What does this fold into?
Amino acid sequence: MEVNAAMTKLRNVGLVGVGAMGEPMGGRLLSAGFRLHTCVHHRRERVMRLVAQGAVEVEDAAAVAARSEVVVTVVPDAPQVEDVLFGERGVAAGLTADGVVIDMSTISPVASRAIAERLKPLGIRMLDAPVSGGPSRAQSGDLTIMVGGERETFDRCLPLFEAMGTATLVGPAGMGETFKLANQIIIANVMLANVEALVFAKKSGADIQQLRDVLLTATGANYLLEKWIPTAWFDNAHKVGFAIDLLRKDLAAAIDAARQMGIPMMSSALAYQLYTAASGERHGTEDYSVVAQLYERAAGVCVVDGASSAGTADIGAHAKA
It folds into this structure.
């Protein structure tokens, strides 16, 4: 992507949180021509890969902020966001007035609004901009980005967002997180519906590939059945995808926010318990489709022929989309 006229207003960008999502997002910013400054948060090897692409490594988050007009944070949860922003030598210690923090983590909208309010007296603006799409779409620059905050700040940062995907301003502070958690509520529950249906059909003797082909033309068609399950479950035995512990964290944030608003979340509360059970069996870092193993074990079947109920067999090309 070439640098355009709009981007001349925004050239120096900071990145704190170079993880599975932060690394490819940083790569997209570099490819778009931004000057990227970053620091080690947990894993140095990811930072060094960005440095090899042209990023500048500095000592800490405050130093990142001091060299940047906008700082992007991509960390697991609200306590980590607060730490990188307000901790000793955090972003708030280095970012000048009229600087912008874009938090692209998925956290509670309640926490996000509180953080935005805490930044205001410092003259720092904030956008909450969680993403959907996973590492592969972060790599290709095809993320869905849901942004909460002020229109003026969003417009100023739009070239940055365009380097990473498609961004939509969805409302005031915290609304980006609300939209993202709505997405997480849906995928958590739809995954369980898919798992239950596939285990039910397998126990009944159905051809799973034929079933999937038919369902994709029926009213039960969904993105997970079409795109996610063939890769994360059928081809990679739950080893690649979206970690179940990250989904649990997102569901917990949604359930907590709903509790504060007095909204019942019966299905999501059950989903949280089922994913917690799977995590308790030491699957927390695996794709959330691994919850299927609870159902397979109870039914005494394996949806993918040749796979073990423990999910350790190499299932190769079985049921490939």
Notes: The two ends are 32 Å apart (CA to CA). The chain is about 50% helix and 10% strand.
